[in-house]
Amino acid sequence: MQHCPDGKMKTEIIRILREQKGEFVSGEMLCEQFSVSRNAVWKAINRLKEQGFEIESVTKKGYRLISEPDLLAKESIESYLSREASVFCFDEIDSTNNECMRLAGNGAPDGTLVAADCQTGGKGRRGRNWTTPKGTAIAMSILLRPQIAPQNAPMLTLVSALAVAKALQENGVKEGLGIKWPNDLVLNKKKICGILTEMITEVDYINHIVVGIGINTHVESFPEEIKDIASSILLETGIKINRSKLIADVYNCFFRYYDIFLKTEDLSGLKEEYDRLLLNKDREVKVLDPKGGFCGTALGINERGELRVKLPNGEITDVSAGEVSVRGLYGYVL
Ligand code: BTN
Question: C-alpha angle 197/11/262, rounded to 5°?
Fold first, then answer.
């Protein structure tokens, strides 16, 4: 068996202990698994304990996992991933999107994942700021190097929104969850997640894309000016999701949907599932078009991710996210 590097060994130990669901795993088995000495296993276990993993060690029985901390750690995220990925995890960073861009410039591979516990210069859409307070939210970015036409890239934002919704559902967040077109995740009519996709293109091809996802997992209070339109999963449901697990689940879901998207380079394979989560569907929307706004009923998306809107005269027009923005007639979404 191959010798296992230190970080990888910790990742695999977490995975093995977790799979045993509270049963003991012998030290001997772990030594064999990684072709290392008992002392090396013991050291790795101690480092995990220092990171907050509660692991019981009993002579002649081995080790068993009692609880996992809600910490953002590379090994913890990796232990939940369903495919190999290059993972970078920071206590603090300006913006995970910026870091992902920097890594891309240094040749980081497709699928590189950057996560941070806190962002000091988090970026939102339309030049706004995005706050990621320490220990209570998720900031993650995924680097993509797809061979697709640049004009198809904006659809990836809708793919990402679908992935986040799916990952949240898998973690028990179901009631009241939906997508406000094109890519805001909304829970009980309040925004809990935003997505910022940035792209570097050459003349006619994409060099790389960074998909940045911010999720308010357990933020407990919001500034006065946004408290009526923003919330967190904890505030809305009482559920405190382990953030490393959610980051990995979002990543795993993203690649499931991304593979479907890549087959056709459009949303034809995802449209139905997206429409089921679309909060605007069958509701009145106000389209804020710089060339002149109008009202209508949202019907769902087309295979390019544009919103199909039925006008009062019965005509149907397709609205593209880059050009216009959509408001619910009454309040934030509805
Ligand atoms: C929005 O305005 O709705 C988009 C917010 C996107 C925030 C995320 S947090 C992770 C990534 N890094 C950033 O600086 N922004 C995105």
Answer: 35
Indicate whether residue 194 lines ligand 1 (CB < 6 A).
yes
Q: Where are the beta strands (DSSP E) in 21-126?
A: 54-58, 62-67, 87-90, 113-116
Minimal CA–CA distance to 306: which of 287, 327, 325, 320?
A: 320
> Does the beta carbon of 55 sit less than 6 angstroms from any atom of ligand 1?
no
| Ligand 1 contact via 216 beta carbon (within 6 Å) | no
Nearest in space to 38 (alpha carbons), one of 26, 50, 22: 26
Q: What is the pLDDT of residues 182-232, one digit of tens each?
A: 999 999 999 999 999 999 998 789 999 999 999 999 999 999 999 899 999
pLDDT band at 290 (very low <50, low <70, confident <90, very high): confident
Nearest to 232 by CA among 278, 191, 172, 175: 191
* Residues 26, 45: Cα–Cα separation, whole Å: 12
| Angle at alpha carbon of residue 320, lines to 292 and 307, rounded to 5° | 100
Expressed in angstroms and rounded, the spacing between residue 195 Cα and the centre of ligand 1 is 5
- Residue 216: both structure tokens together: 């308010």
* Sequence-distant (≥ 6) Cβ neighbours of residue 279 within 8 angstroms: 178, 179, 180, 186, 333, 334
Mean pLDDT of 138-152: 96
Residue 321 C-alpha to ligand 1 middle, in angstroms? 17
Q: Which residue's structure tokens are 């019981």?
A: 56
Q: Is 212 in the pocket of ligand 1 (CB under 6 A)?
A: yes
Decide the pairing of beta strands 325-328 and 190-201: unpaired
Q: Is 122 in the pocket of ligand 1 (CB under 6 A)?
A: yes
Alpha-carbon distance values, 169 to 81, 237, 244, 253, 256 (Å) = 17, 12, 16, 11, 15
Q: Which of 40-44, 268-272, 316-320 has the highest mean pLDDT?
A: 268-272
Query: How many angstroms is it from 245 CA to the middle of ligand 1?
Result: 19
182 lines ligand 1 (CB under 6 A): no
Q: Whose CA is nearest to atom 2 of ligand 1?
A: 124
Whole-prediction pTM = 0.90
Closest-CA residue to 232 (of 131, 96, 124): 131
